[in-house]
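We store amino acids, tokens; thus:
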Amino acid sequence: MIVLEFRLRLADHSFVRQDSGYHGMSEPNPDHFEMRRLESLSNTIFGVAMTLLAYDLPKSGQFDHLPTWRDLYQLYSGRMAGFVLSFVIAGIFWFSHQRRLARQPYGSRNVVFLNLLFLLSIILLPVTNGLDSTYGQSRAVTVLFGLHLTAIAGLNSTLWWLIHRQQPHRPELIGSLFPLLVFVPGTMVALFSPQLAKYIWLLGFGGLFVRRFHRSPPAGAE
């Protein structure tokens, strides 16, 4: 019985060491925040924001007669384009946010504060998207929408940099910088051509492919 109990304790101690090594840290700092709790909050915020993008679509116009296909196209074509653009952007940043939280089990107060700012920018996405869908020809509204997208991409890149700042190979950081490099010139183009700026912003989705071309080197590689 004594030998059996000793072996059980030894096995349990070995399992704890392996488990702590898997997460990349032994004892978390008591001042750090468990990012798993923030993940639950972010999933709710992204879900609500992406739902609200389509909330006002049926209320965007009224007809004094039974609408035809032509009427529906004229009323909703521009609004649907803006909705699809914002929905895909929100989905891409949600995907990036989930990957980032998985790489960072614990975070300091500053990191948590930046994540909350990032989530605040996502909450405001239905607001600027609604303005852009209604007044898409306005340069001021389009520039405001572009500045909002730039702020979201900038916060996302900053959070990725905080994780990879001490690593030589950073494919996720490179992928997060690509939308930022697209949204900034696109916003400048919006000063002269609001419609052209939206086509430029679509190029920001290329960040997904950029990250694939910068995969981490295999273990043991120089």
User: Anything to note?
Assistant: The chain has a mean pLDDT of 76. The two ends are 50 Å apart (CA to CA). The chain has one domain: 32-59+69-212.
